[in-house]
Specification:
The chain has 115 residues and is mostly beta strands. It has 2 domains: 48 residues, RNA polymerase II/Efflux pump adaptor protein, barrel-sandwich hybrid domain (OB fold (Dihydrolipoamide Acetyltransferase, E2P)); 50 residues, no CATH class. Helix content is 0%, strand content 53%. The protein is built from no helices and 13 strands. The strands form 4 sheets. Strands 1-6-7-3 form a 4-stranded mixed β-sheet, with no helix packed on it. The protein is elongated, with a radius of gyration of 19 Å.
Length: 115
């Protein structure tokens, strides 16, 4: 089992020798990393995977996001995400949202976006 630092898109192994495992993908020729982390090569089961360097909380489809609007332009706005599913984030993620077809409910200076 080896443990080298891997960056997203970095080649970890050849698909003829290892299968794609957790946090990796098969590009047709190689097993590549999808995250920044440490490579783990399981020689017994022939699986290459990457362990997160640090687990970052990122939103998924159908997650409830609570954030603060930090910038507004004519057709987009930037939102600093503060909570994902009622759990505070520490990653300081921001998203850019289009302002057309938007429904909003103002709660003091916080905005809940329903896209």
């Amino acid at each position: 089992m080896s443990s080298d630092v891997a960056l997203p898109g970095e080649k970890i192994a050849i698909i003829e020798e290892y299968e794609s495992g957790t946090n990796t993908f098969d590009d047709g020729h190689s097993v590549r990393s999808t995250v920044i982390g440490t490579t783990e090569i399981d020689k017994k089961n022939r699986v290459a995977k990457v362990r997160y360097a640090k687990l970052l909380m990122t939103p998924n489809v159908n997650d409830l996001i609570i954030g603060q609007v930090v910038a507004v332009m004519s057709s987009i706005m930037a939102v600093s995400i503060e909570y994902i599913n009622n759990k505070p984030t520490s990653a300081h993620i921001e998203c850019i949202c289009p302002t057309r077809n938007l429904r909003k409910k103002m709660l003091h200076y916080k905005v809940i976006l329903l896209l």
